[in-house]
Amino acid sequence: MTTETQRPSIRERIRAIDAGEPVIAAHFLKDEAALLLASGEVVLAGASDRRISLHEGGILDSASDGAVLVTGGDDGRVVVLDGKGEPRTVHDSGGTWIDRVAVGPSRSLAWSAGRTVTYKPEKGETKSLSLPSACGGIAFFPKGQRLALAHYNGATLWYPNVAGEPQKLEWKGSHLGITVSADQRFVVTTMQEPQLHGWRLEDGQHMRMSGYPGKVRSFAWTQGGKFLATSGASEAILWPFSGKNGPMGVNPTMIAPAAKAGIKVTQVAGHPAAPVIAAGFADGLILLCRIEDGAEILMREPDGDAITALAWRADGKAAAFGTEGGKAGLALL
């Protein structure tokens, strides 16, 4: 780890954004940063800033593919924003909370309300699936119309357009988030316990990724899907997925250590075009770190205000962040 005086910095490239309230998630809509606020608003930050109200209440989940932003709220609505016009409601449950949302290939959408997951293609018939318990997370497979759904005691893999029973992946416990590897060979979930669980789909082999001092609340794939970067420890933990067996039998890579003992990583984001991650910490520190040698660049000094949102622009030339205390910024790199 380099010392504070030696570590290069990009602090002078950051433009402050007036969020004014806790930032719960960050995305990009083309060139604009989209910072979601606790009040149900979004701040779109680019050449100038503008605020748009999305929900009459809190935002419970959000997702973006860079062209559209989809949000689910405790007002029972699923809202889509493309950065050009007014937000449009694509579903209104009448008040049932929309817990999870996802954007998939060909602009397809998915969301959950309790045990029910709904799939909506850009064109065609909307379909629903009932899970054994409330949905903890939704992820589209990178190719095709297939969904991975986390829930209690495992995960379900669902082809909405194919008749028959969805595939079940079993593992006891509460599964709270889910993701699929770039090569579509592995499904990984975060759990109520401080660990990850995974399945190799070709043979159902289980993968248990443990050893975290805290719950894993943020995860992100690095360039090309080579690593899955995760929060939950005093440095970013990166599990390798480039080999045949994924992380099985291989130690993770640990980079971007905290400035002080006991401070944990709260947010991670993988650079889309380079082997670099951004890691945000509970004390407000943000580091950009190169995976191959651990070289660090300081993006933000620690100030005690926890990083709650972190995202890269699709071209990798900008990053956005937000904090629990309502601070935010856009870095041009």
Describe the structure.
By secondary structure, the chain is mainly β. The protein has a domain at 126-211: Thrombin, subunit H, CATH 2.40.10.500. It is built from no helices and 30 strands. Strands 14-15-16-17-18-19 form a 6-stranded antiparallel sheet, with no helix packed on it. The protein starts with 13 loop residues before the first strand and ends with a strand. This is WD-40 repeat-containing protein. It comes from Phreatobacter oligotrophus. InterPro entries: WD40/YVTN_repeat-like_dom_sf.
Map the helices and strands.
Blueprint: E1 14-18, E2 23-29, E3 32-37, E4 41-45, E5 49-53, E6 59-64, E7 69-73, E8 77-81, E9 88-92, E10 100-103, E11 109-113, E12 116-120, E13 127-130, E14 137-140, E15 147-158, E16 167-180, E17 186-191, E18 196-200, E19 205-209, E20 219-221, E21 227-230, E22 236-240, E23 253-255, E24 265-270, E25 276-281, E26 286-290, E27 296-300, E28 307-312, E29 318-323, E30 327-332
Antiparallel strand pairs: 1-30, 2-3, 3-4, 4-5, 6-7, 7-8, 8-9, 10-11, 11-12, 12-13, 14-15, 15-16, 16-17, 17-18, 18-19, 20-21, 21-22, 22-23, 24-25, 25-26, 26-27, 28-29, 29-30
